[in-house]
Amino acid sequence: MHNGKARAFTNIALIKYWGKKDQQLILPMNNSLSLTLDAFYTETSVSFSKDYTKDTFYLDGQLQDEKATQKVRHFLDLARNQAGIFKYATVCSQNFVPTAAGLASSASGLAALAGACNNALKLDLSPKELSRLARKGSGSACRSIYGGFVEWEKGNSDQTSFAVPIASNHWEDELAMIFILINDKTKEVPSRNGMQRTVDTSSYYDSWVKSADLDIKKAKDAITKNDFHALGKVTESNCLKMHATTLAASPPFTYWSPGSLKAMNKVQAMRQAGQNCYFTMDAGPNVKVLCRKKEVEDIYHELQKDFPAEQLVIAYAGKGIESLEMEVAK
N or C: which end of the chain has fewer CB within 10 A? Predict the structure, then answer.
């Protein structure tokens, strides 16, 4: 039997990945830039054994159906082919983040699975190689291999598309992100479906790709200069442009809810009142507020005037992927 276990933290894109140029390899249309966070993570164990008669997948203790298992099976096949081992597997994944609610559970989940497979099959992958493997499970998972600021280089082939850490002199340790949990339910339009509909039909899409390339440069320059306001401005702007592409798709759709608009308006009003904060959103209704750690308490208390404490979660910069010890059954 081959066993492995890993923990990976979620990452939130400041400059978004939205659209693929290769569906099979998951090659993105543009580079993206993220911050790995400590508040949400996934722990995954995998066991390969000649005694198993099929692949099984448990999520949060519940045996998953064929549709959910198929995505995991596809990834297991990639790892098995790389290792030259063709045994069935049991995967047990614990999400410390609401699944499919726009909180990047697929990023931490597939990164953790990649790490568990690397450990179980003794693939001995470098971080870059592990990032490439994770990418083929879920694009944003390639960024969760690393802590702090991370850039996913789009590349033009399997070999050249992977994430790399961004040197920042640990400036990310001065930052915080407050999650405003508007809705932790499963999304009506899954990210993959919405992304492809946008690429295929949105009249704004080409402009989005060109704009994203410029936004990456602005964000990296802000990180180099430790310029919080420059990073916040480009983060918020990039988010709004990404979501605009969905409204121009056919048929149009949005991940925003009334609560999302309330949260975005609140952040903008706080900023006009002199508080240093900016928002971003991924493919879901939840809003994330970027701020500085020294100001997070004041901003949190101001948000509590409009949102109950159970809807607010504070996160700080998180670590890269970690190997864990498997519990031994007695």
Answer: C
Asked whether the bond before 251 is cis by omega within 30 degrees of 0, the reply is yes
CA distances from 307 to 89, 221, 304, 313 (A): 43, 34, 5, 11
Torsion angle, CA of 13/292/323/169, rounded to 10 degrees? 90
Please state, in angstroms and rounded to a whole number, the distance separating the CA atoms of residues 206 and 246: 13
The encoded tokens of residue 156 equal 């033009």
State how far the alpha carbon of 115 is from the alpha carbons of 43, 132, 151, 281, in Å. 10, 12, 19, 27
65/95 Cα distance (integer angstroms): 17
Q: Which residues contact 315 (CB under 8 A, 6 or more apart)?
A: 37, 38, 39, 40, 176, 177, 178, 179
pTM, rounded to two decimals:
0.94
The amino acid at 151: E
- Does domain 1-330 fall under CATH 3.30.230.10? My reply is yes
Helices 105-120, 127-135: inter-axial angle, 10-degree rounding:
120
CB 43 within 8 A of CB 149: no
Structure tokens at 49: 């054994």
- Distance, CA of 257 to CA of 255 (rounded, Å): 7
Please name which of 266, 265, 263 lies closest in space to residue 311, comparing C-alpha atoms. 263
Tell me the domain boundaries of the chain: 1-330
pLDDT score at 166: 97
Q: Quote the CA–CA distance of 43 and 65 in Å, as a whole number.
A: 20
Q: Tokens for 41?
A: 């993570």
Helix axes 205-224, 228-247, angle to 10 degrees: 170
Q: How far apart are CA 95 and CA 42, in angstroms?
A: 5
74 touches 110 (CB < 8 A): no
What are 122-177's pLDDT values in tens digits? 999 999 999 999 999 999 999 999 999 999 999 999 999 999 999 998 999 999 99
Query: CA 115, 170, 281: angle at the middle one, nearest 5?
Result: 70
